Amino acid sequence: MTTEAENNHSTTDEVLRLFRERGGSQYGGEVVTQLEHALQAATFAERETATPALIAAALIHDVGHLLHDLPQDAPDQGIDDQHETRAAVWLASRFPPVVVAPVAMHVAAKRYLCAIDADYLGQLSQPSIQSLALQGGPMTRDEIDCFESRPYFQDALRLRRWDDAAKVVGMVTPGLEHFARYLDRALESEE
Ligand code: FE
């Protein structure tokens, strides 16, 4: 019989393996790889002393991109890869809601911020603006009210800001092994 600790270790190993095997691919039309993007997002979360669960969420928020074989330029072809849904399904059987929810909501968070913050849209990268249209565009008033009532909505907004910032060419960050500890701790979370 496997213990909970052994299960947690194997999930952390599985995540690390995904990044090692598939993280070298380009992050959509952006200037960084998937692995660089993940490490940068987690580094920003750590600098803001986010909880271990939210640092883990920042690291794996785009794991959905590592789980499909659609081309990296799918949005150019008018395809929404629905990576946040792929990630949520994959993560839900492995991580607690405190990790899964902000990841599942990180695209909705972009649509929300575009609707409520006039400056936000102007700061988005070109690929991010392009995918916004495929993802439904800025939220409507009803969608905003609904989004604000969801648990973990503030965490999703914080994650979104780190996600948007994590596109820096040549940024020095700790490596994957450094962040493995947050995956382990997130897996122990009761929430
Ligand atoms: Fe991202």
Q: How is this structure best described in words?
A:
The chain is mainly α and 191 residues long. The chain has a single domain, classed as Hypothetical protein af1432. The protein has helices at 4-22, 34-47, 52-60, 83-92, 97-104, 106-116, 118-123, 126-134, 141-148, 153-165, 176-187. Helix 3 (52-60) packs across helix 5 and helix 4 runs antiparallel to helix 5. It is globular. The two termini are 25 Å apart. Bound molecules: fe (iii) ion (FE).
Q: Can you write the helix and strand succession as a string?
A: HHHHHHHHHHH
Total helical segments: 11
Per DSSP, what share of the residues sits in E-state strands of 2 or more residues?
under 5%
Task: Tell me, briefly, the overall form.
Answer: globular
Q: Any low-confidence stretches, pLDDT <50, length ≥5? A: none
What is the gist of this entry?
With 191 residues, the chain is mainly alpha-helical.
Helix-strand layout with pairing:
Elements: H1 4-22, H2 34-47, H3 52-60, H4 83-92, H5 97-104, H6 106-116, H7 118-123, H8 126-134, H9 141-148, H10 153-165, H11 176-187
Bound molecules: fe (iii) ion.
Fe (iii) ion binds at residues 37, 61-62, 163.
